[in-house]
Here is the input.
Amino acid sequence: MSGYRTVPAGFGGSLVVAVGPRLLRGVAAGPSLEEHRRFWADPRPVDAADLVARTGRAELRGRGGAGFPFGRKLSTAVSSGRKRSVVVNAAEGEPGSAKDSALMITAPHLVLDGAELVAGALETSTVNVVVPAERPAVEEALRQAITERSGAVRYEILRTGGTFVGGQSRAVVELAEGRENLPVTSWTPEAVSGIKGRPTLLSNAETFAQVAVICALGVDEYLREGLPAEPGTTLLTVAGDSPGGVVLEVPFGVELAQVLAYCGYGVDGPVLMGGYHGAWLAAEHVRRRTISRVDLAVSGASLGAGVILPLDPATCPVVITASIVDYLAAHSAGRCGPCRNGLPTLATTLAELAEGGGPTTSTRAKELVALVTGRGACAHPDGTARLVRSLFRAFPQEVAAHESGRCDASAARVPAGTVGA
Here is the structure.
């Protein structure tokens, strides 16, 4: 890699952050405001209508996982006519994801530029920033960056409880209101009613950085990278839950195989796209897919929060899935039936399948997936079910082998560093 920085990761290891074309182009220079301004000018304020138009033309979608159009969320918050809140969500509770953490450590001022543009457009002088308790380097970098700025915006730092679901939008609202950092059932978008009932513009750190880039470059220049329907660049975390993790920035449309090769991985093994709530890709699909929401959907996968977890060809996806589901079952809010009962039972069933359970074990797992889907207080059960469904879809032969009491993978083990090992 021609330019990079090594930053601490939450699990005690470190991550390589590679220099990128936009968001990460100043990584090698350092995170100070002085260095940041060498690459990015002090942003000019924009009004709400202008910012809605710019982010809409740029087709900016949230980089936190759902991919919701940012302009639509902003427009909803604007239309209320009431006092509003702004939240930068850098929680990243999943061990496999580290792009927002890496961005906050290496380029915090780009995130804060975007946050201040949004705050100005929404006529609020306070920005809440949510940081992960398990990654203290993020908070340290944020506090240092705040001291370097003019003070036009007041920042309030909220530290999560360190759980997988702590960064979920409603869990963040609960945290901001002084309650336990766990999600609750709500059918109202935060942009309509969030913190203290106010319209709340809540997006992840990368999304705010993208806002800053759009305003700095102009929409036409922003559209020069990426695909016509998916313009711009995106941050990816490759193998973020194991030693040798890499955070990099790529334009939409780049081949998945090219990304893996850049990070030192082959294309002959399974890949989990989108992280622990994502979907499996078999090797034949890995070779054909690109970094594109539309293209990945062809194989039943999604980009999610930009998490890519490659496995060695000799590692069994059934064993890995059982390990991840066991982790997810232990890291739920425990506030609804699917989390209290469904996910632990699903974890036990998958463990039995991994150990050589018969066909009835697979049948039971599929029944449990159907039972927990769409019935949780948050999306945690749905995301876990998505992962399990993809196992049966992508690796039917390996599942069948386990049903008969064997494992076709030559080394059915959890790789070093993977959660659940």
Q: What stands out?
A: Residues 411-421 have pLDDT under 50 and may be disordered. Residues 253-310 form one domain. The longest strand covers residues 245-251. The first helix runs from residue 33 to 39.
